[in-house]
Sequence to fold (384 residues):
Amino acid sequence: MKIDMTTRKHMILTLAVIAVVVAGVAGAVLAARQEERPAEKGSKGEKTAPQVRVATARTETIRSVRVLPATVEPTRVARLASPAEGPVSRLLVRESDLVKGGQLLVVIGRNRTTQAKLLSDREELRRLQDEYERVERLVATGAIAGELLDKARVDLERAKAMVEAGEEVNADFKVHAPWSGVVSQVLVQEGNYVAPRSVLLEVFDPASLVVRLALPEAIALKVRRGAEARVRFDALPGSEVTGEVKRIYPELDRKLRMRVAEVSVDDQEALAPGMFARVRLTVETLPEAVVVPATAVVTTPRQEQAVFVVDGELAHLRTIEPGIEEGSLVQVVSGVDAGEIVVAAGHRKLEDGTRVRVKAEPPKPEERPEAAVSQEARPEPARL
Fold:
């Protein structure tokens, strides 16, 4: 019986110790939670305001820039055709040859018949010229009637016309350069038999090389003559030439809805017809536009563009109408005025009316890169 009582006392004592230990642990845990609670909540039980980076909306010049594919092409090209039927007896030039205006390029054979007839016509012209002078002397002396002189004059003029026509026909068998240029294509060889109006070769003027591009309908009416352009060529990596829009075709292509424009470049020495180019074209320039960082623009669940405008310690969501984007800046057509503070970073957890903490003073506007980002490369705005 004594053993049972002793055992019971030990059990009671053990339970009491366990209870004391459990109570101590629970108190320590509760104290730790009480210490952590002030760090998570403010004095009013509100969460700590999120930290954001802000920027100031400002007014400056902004440009709409597009990068478009283009091709180098000459605007002065002559496709020289055969004036007569016959074999190519002489071919005097090849591709890349420089030619001068009036230079003989190709001779078409089979002109022996015309040359023989021309010789005959010239001999007849000399005979009639002598006959006319003889009749003129006889009429002057009264030996014959004056009507015979009129007939001799008509025969002489007819003979002159025949000789002139023969000379023109004989000359048509030779092809000359219309002006100075470069031979780009030779489509025949000596001995080839050609038909009339068959193209023999092609000559272009290197001074007439332009960069030709097609403008999409969306910007076709915005581009103006004299617009700035920067051109890069795949064949010349790392190099860029400046130029401007010199010509804009008046009509759009009916099928493609594209409008052709021509850009003249300052340096044409390294260009060749057919080269592929990429034109960074200034479509539109706005001298006094309200701009904000592109990172400040967010997309609402209604698919509207908006920014968070900071007023005191609160950030208010405001719908805007964005415009031109260049580099890291975007134009605000309406919704924000110059001088207002907008959230540039840290707005993903914000809601309309959220209290915020500014991480630092409004940063200075970053300098725009010399080469603006094209509209095709525009980053997707953040979504709420």
Q: What stands out?
A: The first strand starts at residue 51 and ends at 56. The chain has four helices and 24 strands. Residues 35-45, 367-379 have pLDDT under 50 and may be disordered.
